[in-house]
Each structure stands twice: as structure tokens, then as C-alpha cells.
Amino acid sequence: MLGDTKSDALKRVNYIDGHLAGVHKMIEEDRYCVDVIRQTYAIRRALQKLEGVLIDGHLRSCVPDAYREGRDDQMLDELKDLFEISER
Asked: What are phi and psi of 69, to 5 degrees?
């Protein structure tokens, strides 16, 4: 994983961890359901952004490396699997 991608991904994971801890605390404190749900939406958006960062990093580093190493079919299968997972 490229250094910038890794750094960005770790920052986003820390942000998500913080939000999850906040949701956990909100549930323990019996906070208003709509407020909790708003936070879960924020977590979902943060996860989507994290996925975007990871995919971008993968396309910029891992995919070109795989092609150079002659693993074209393997890489295409992995990308196809990722696309199928994202459509579920």
C-alpha cells in the first residue's frame, strides 16, 4: 500500500472508530433513536470514503504491479469480485 494511501486510510479508520465508540455510548445512555441513526449514517459515509481511498490505492499500486508480474487474470478476477461484492 502506498504511504499516502496508508496514512489516509488509517486516519479514516480512526475517525470511524471514534464514531462507533460514540454510537456505543449513545445507545448505553438511551439517547434518542434518530440521533443514533444519524451517527450510523455518518459511519456508513465514512466507510464508503475509506473504501474509495483503498480502491484508489489498489488501482494505483497493486494493479500495475500485478500486470507487470503477469498476474493479469488473477487481478481481473479480484476486481470483478470486488465489483460484485459492492453490488450486493
From this structure: -90, 0
